[in-house]
């Protein structure tokens, strides 16, 4: 803990609890890159769930009619004076308010358009502002409601001349219950009493559901806010409290300082009984429900460290714009996290850290998501995307610095080494689909159309492409570009042209672009067209290399796509020092021949450290030379490039661009690998083959193959304990390898996890949180029933969302039918009424998918309880569960079980759900006879794989096999 943290007003680790007399003004992100903990950023994950239910035809139609939903450009808001009254302390959803909207009318106008979603306007008045700022009443306006476009259209009797006006509106509304807009949530306090909270989530276009406003990101204005509430609660917002005054009715009004000029979706407020910890010097606070206030110290420490390194790195201190920054942990916040200016909001499990409970993975999530939201204070808040089609200008920077800023704040943890595997390699998968979109793109101006843009392209691809741009410049040049970009556009709205302008200045005299290529063309080739290229590197072995590019598709080689990218690349030759600077070269056409002096018996490596956003394929000879070096002298190839080679080889083979045997040969080097990033890339490939091989006649050969890969590494690991000097990446490596060892039923792994679990159950020796995921999951497979009961009791007794999520996942690993059946029943209540929220209920149903026993239990459960699940969680949840069952159906017997379920529910299921499930199973059953299946089988039969050295033959045949991993998801 640094000195700034040591001065926190919590002497000797006892919290100074300060009453909250502030009101929150928050606008959230609907999507964002998760951290290294899971496949996607929590905000992105939230939006992807919603996106799965959007109708493509509706989105296409919305894009064609975008202008109908946009505000006219000649009336611009300059200031809001907003007043709200709430009785949220009682759980009452009704609230009322008024707003003065100051308007700059720039041409003669007969109508004023204001956004409104679900509010009742009770009165309106229009005033003109004279040069002395005095108001002159003009008229009460007639208006119409356009519910479809969410407009209130005010008609003016006599046309308004260009001038300043004020539209004063009184309105009434109800707090929403869907975690959007101005919404109601609740929690149980330490005494079991339900307490209510009013909070906000306005991004992208939900400020209009809280109060009438002009709800587009480019329409920035200053805001004065006043909230009237019960004195037992406090209000917080973007700005510090200016004053608190009592009223004759016993309520109080909290008045906030005026905000800077800002987008309306970034307004945020909170009315609650939350407490906070703070560091006055750093002007940072962290809010949480009172019973969780002792879990806020790490978020305060991380927030201070991250803000300090960002201030120094960007060179424009945060407090040049805002006087404070608060963070809030919410029990109900479906967005995951949100960067509201000065008042960032998070789901509890993404902010609260409990020593002895919180795992290294959750701590990584907390750290990187704080970095994500804090970077937004500049990129998103000081400067904002002009329209949602340019969302990558916000989210790309936040995703890039999610890891960079965390790494600068905690360099010993090597967060930056997680970027390629958690961001770049993940989006290379999704962006290879034919349905992907360009980074700059619009589908319209409706709620769903805008929501659909909060996807992996905006977040993960945006961050990856910006990483490529960054690495072309020296660090000083990149940082100067950031300052230029911010200072030139501060308090404004930006387009890619503004970014290109700043990049052009940064490149001038520093980066040598190819002839006839300027920065605009270079940047445009990456942001204005969909997908990405594969760079084919073919050596003639006669002094030349042929470079060619083609758009990479996941499932085909030959295509008529004529897309071309301006591709920067670097080359490492065998024997080159790894710490030497690399010279950037360029491919600007479909193909080119370049001279090469590399000896024919030595390899070349292109796109060193996976700096560029594309895949690389080589001729077979070069691949085999790389494989030999990986096996004989692993460290001769950079660690990030090793991860790239594994990832590229797998996906090139899956798309038939590379012989699968070469990819499998390359995977065999992993037995010599001791770094986590390459192992994570390999684990994803092994996971794919595992889902295909489970239940097949030659599955035993696959087990031996995996045993061979992990054996030597596994022998170096202590699966059930954590050494004091164990690094973050070592913990990731341990969890990845030990999970495979237990899944492959290596006896020592199953024994060690069972014994560690039993020591906690019977001897009160707690399992270290950093190995709980593996110990609990696999220990349950052979531990007595009391261990399951113990973990379930631990779940019921925990109020830490991160710990609860880990326990829910672990309990799903059980392979006892009675335990699984009882566990699934708790998801819908039954005789045992438990404190699960709906998200946790769904997690329970999904958790059992980690084993075939669990899938069978889920089939039986849905057969008996379909109507309960549908009424509680919605029909789409059931449909998705059925598709998950189909995904995990590999044999004829398993197909029969699924068909019986589909027949039982036939009258309830749409035809498309049944058809999709049956199509998935057909693909699974046919896989062994596909080219991929035959080649894998041939490879496994031809090689004499050996299990780990200490394992005796009794590990084969193996006990009940776990067929799908969840603890690493």
From TrEMBL:
One of its GO terms (biological process) is proteolysis. The keyword Chloroplast does not apply. InterPro entries: Aminopeptidase_N-like_N (IPR045357), Aminopeptidase_N-like_N_sf (IPR042097), ERAP1-like_C_dom (IPR024571), M1_APN-typ (IPR034016), Peptidase_M1 (IPR001930), Peptidase_M1_aminopeptidases (IPR050344), Peptidase_M1_dom (IPR014782), Peptidase_M4/M1_CTD_sf (IPR027268). Residues 603-921 form the ERAP1-like C-terminal domain. Residues 298-526 form the Peptidase M1 membrane alanine aminopeptidase domain. Its main location: membrane. Its EC number is 3.4.11.-. Zn(2+) binds at residues 372, 376, 395. Binds 1 zinc ion per subunit. Residues 76-266 form the Aminopeptidase N-like N-terminal domain. It is an enzyme of class 3 (hydrolase). It is a lipid-anchor; GPI-anchor. GO terms for cellular component: cytoplasm; extracellular space; plasma membrane; side of membrane. Keywords: Aminopeptidase, Cell membrane, Disulfide bond, Glycoprotein, GPI-anchor, Hydrolase, Lipoprotein, Membrane, Metal-binding, Metalloprotease, Protease, Zinc. The record marks 459 as: Transition state stabilizer. Its cofactor is Zn(2+). GO terms for molecular function: metalloaminopeptidase activity; peptide binding; zinc ion binding. It comes from the Eukaryota. The keyword Iron does not apply. The active site is at residue 373. It is found in: Cell membrane. Belongs to the peptidase M1 family. This is Aminopeptidase. It comes from Anopheles epiroticus. The lineage of its organism: Eukaryota, Metazoa, Ecdysozoa, Arthropoda, Hexapoda.
